Structure formats: structure tokens, C-alpha cells
Amino acid sequence: MEDNNKVTPKRGFPGQKTSVQAALRWRGREGGAMAFPEPKPRGPELPQKRLKTLDCGQRAVRAVRFNVDGNYCLTCGSDKTLKLWSPLRGTLLRTYSGHGYEVLDAAGSFDNSSLCSGGGDKAVVLWDVASGQVVRKFRGHAGKVNTVQFNEEATVILSGSIDSTIRCWDCRSRRPDPIQKLDEAKDGISSVKVSDHEVLAGSVDGRVRRYDLRMGHLFSDYVGSPITCTCFSRDGQCTLVSSLDSTLRLLDKDTGELLGEYTGHKNQEYKLDCCLSERDTHVVSCSEDGKVFFWDLVEGALALALPVGPGVVQSLAYHPTEPCLLTAVGGSIQCWREETYKAEDGTG
User: Fold this and answer.
1) Is the pTM higher than 0.85?
2) Are 83 and 105 in contact (CB under 8 A)?
3) N or C: which end of the chain has fewer CB within 10 A?
4) WD repeat ranges (predicted)?
5) Model confidence over 77-119: pLDDT tens digits?
6) Distances in Å between the alpha carbon of 75 and those of 21, 81, 144, 159?
């Protein structure tokens, strides 16, 4: 196992690479005179105009998730249901019932034909979107399932549990056992993300682990505080990690170098979501004080503290290509767009 040590942030350091890291580079001409600054492009707009608030009728909403193209969303309820919505229209499309306890996470397949979900009943469920029926129910975890993801082809579901394992389930096979079990974590798994050849996992043991499936390697970075959420940057070169010390950290995926730290929000008790905006320009996080926080990725400065509602903002989801944000507070979700957004029907 390779263990990357935590280091102090280095912003504006020569030699960093690719799009996110390049944004942190020294901006002068290397080995030459400083260039005249180019006109500063207009900054990206942040979603801060509330378009809709939907009462989901699921008691508490534990998670909200966009589908692959951002046209629909899923809400996970403490009432054991999973619901599919058109968030901009505010319409409920289907309710999925089959879990024995609260639903904690869900994900959609690349072709929108299937859903997977996990929850407090320790089960991982594969659903048919169109019929609303349970296709398979996978059992084997010894504790509640915090997080679920499809692989890119939607042939495998990966699930992370408080039992400290990640299990990989074959959607096409009738075999009841997982095809693989990743059990390196020393405490519960809070977050799992999947790329074409990598699995990124955050654990309550304070480590973020990256499994390179092509090379068969495991990389581990020690954050120290229990991890609540992890994700890849959109360009795949960095990882964002949130933890219970009310801090988000941006790490170079390959070296583990700490590129930035983002603070100001409150995250000391709950498993809260974080992400990067659709163009990797801002770091975004839920907070226990009823707000969503946006930081400029390069500068590390707080760009916006968006008031959402009373209590904990439990979950968020960022649209894959547009400045559109979904948030979950209590039993409702909120849909946010940029200030200049005009809805197609003329409202908003």
C-alpha cells in the first residue's frame, strides 16, 4: 500500500498540471518576462435563485441525486421509499417501494433504465425504472448501506457500509454473493465514487482510499478526521474530501499533495455531501447551519453562503453540465438556478 503524507497547501506553484491543477499554477511566463494580464473572463454564475421547493412526502429526505443527464432526480426517504422526480417541473414520476428501512443513497444507470439503492435494512436493491419493480435484492452487508454507485456500464453495483466493507454486486448474475469485497477500511464506509477504472472511498477511519482497478494498486491518504464525502474533480485529476473537522480538502489524485483547504461551514456530526461545480470552478458543501457554501477553487475564498432552510442541509446534487443545484432539508428538496436563468415556460 502506498501512503501519501499530508502536506501544507501549495497554490500557485510551478509544475502543477492539467485543468484543475493548472488553475493553481504560476501565471507568469516560465523563464520569461511577465505578460500583460488578459481581460478577466466573466466568472461563472452560481445557482442562488430558488426556483422550486418540493415537499417530497417521505418524512426526512436522506439524499437527493441527479440522474446522468440532469433531467431527473431521485430522493431517498426515511419512509423506506425512493422517488423519481422532474425537479424543474416539480412533478413526481414514480415511487419505488421495497426497502425494509430508510433509504440512504441511490444512483441511476448511464442509460436511465435502472436504479440502485441502499439503506438501513442492509440491502442493496436494483430497480427497473419503467416498471418500478425490484429486479434484484442483494444481501450480505452486516450493517446499514451508506452509499451506492453503478460502474460505468451499469453491470456492477458498488456499495459501502458501516460494516467497513465495499461490496461489488454483479447485476447480470443470479449468484447471491458479491463478486468482490474490499475490506481495507478500519471503520465504516461513508462515501464511494467510481470512474472508468478507479474506486474512490472515504471512511470514518480518516482515510480516503483509491483503488486503481487497471493496475491493481491501492493508494491511501490520511486526513485524520472521519470522512463524510469524497468525489473526483470533473477532469479526474483531483479528489475532494470532506470530514468532521468542518474542513474540505482538495488533493492531487496521483501524489496526494494537498492543493487547497476550504473552511467556514459546519460539519461536526452528520454525513454531508460535497462536490465541485459543473466546470470545476467552485467547491460546494452542505452545512449543519442551514446553508450551502461555495468557495472559489483557486483562491480558497468563500464565494457564497446560500441560506437554504432551518436545520441541517443533509444532501445536495449538482447538475452535470449547468449551474443548477438541488438541496435537501427536512422533508423537502429545493431547486436552485443562476440569477439570470429564465425557465422555458416563462416562469422563474
Assistant:
1) yes
2) no
3) N
4) 54-95, 96-137, 138-170
5) 999 999 999 999 999 999 999 999 999 999 999 999 999 999 9
6) 33, 8, 18, 18
